[in-house]
Amino acid sequence: MTRRMLFDDLGEEVPVAGAPRKVVSLVPALTEAVAVTAPGRLVGATDYCTHPPDLDVPRVGGSKYPKVDAVMDLRPDLVLANSEENRPEDVQRLRANGFPVWVMEAPATVPAALGSLRRVLTQAFELDEPGWLVEAEEIWRETEPRWATAVVPVWRKPWVVLGRDTFGGDVLDRLGVAGAYADHPDRYPRPKLDELRACFAEGRADLLVLPDEPYEFTHDDGPEAFPGVPSVLVSGRDLTWYGPSLVTAHRALRSALDAVRHGRRA
């Protein structure tokens, strides 16, 4: 079969022979996108690929530290990776052993994520544009007027928050919630707790948004560090996953945010 030469988001060569039939995904959001759009193609995924819930494929470890030997043992036609979630050395090892790897650039916006997904699904998989992608683009097209500025931790011990050019930050921005660290030089700053508290005391932020992944913030783990600050718990999947979940994420996040918004006005 004649091999095609594609190029991933980073401009790297991805040689494929026809549409891939055996795919290993090292990115949870990409796993869901492929499982929904091209059922039966996945032969491996990470331990953190929780959607679709009924996905029954061999697991190859975590995204940051996958079991590369286990990936190669599955003899995939294509491996899907992400420039932020996966280590370059693992990608290089797979390529050096003859396995094509498509690396998706970590998206900074919803349109960038959907554009990248369109490329991999239509070019690498030779599929028609999926309906869920078109629907997600329409749902997320508009940006609502700003009504809050939020600190958005994604980890604690140490505290790590959303900074500049993050997908989750753009998601919130489109729902009218600006990021308190959106202009920070780092994408994921690590401010001390005193600095985070000062954001609220000095009026630079008025909302605390706590997702349940990668760190699982709860009602008892997170809000107590910021007494008196309005907070909202949201699904980390809704906030940070790009793919089919974007169709329902808009309504779910807006509902959660509206609850605290109206509660603060009461």
UniProtKB/TrEMBL annotation:
The keyword Phosphoprotein does not apply. It comes from the Bacteria. Keywords: Signal. Residues 26-186 form the Fe/B12 periplasmic-binding domain. SUPFAM superfamilies: Helical backbone' metal receptor. InterPro entries: ABC_Transporter_SBP, ABC_transptr_periplasmic_BD, Vit_B12_bind_prot. Belongs to the bacterial solute-binding protein 8 family. NCBIfam families: TroA_like. This is Substrate-binding protein. It comes from Amycolatopsis arida. The lineage of its organism: Bacteria, Bacillati, Actinomycetota, Actinomycetes, Pseudonocardiales.
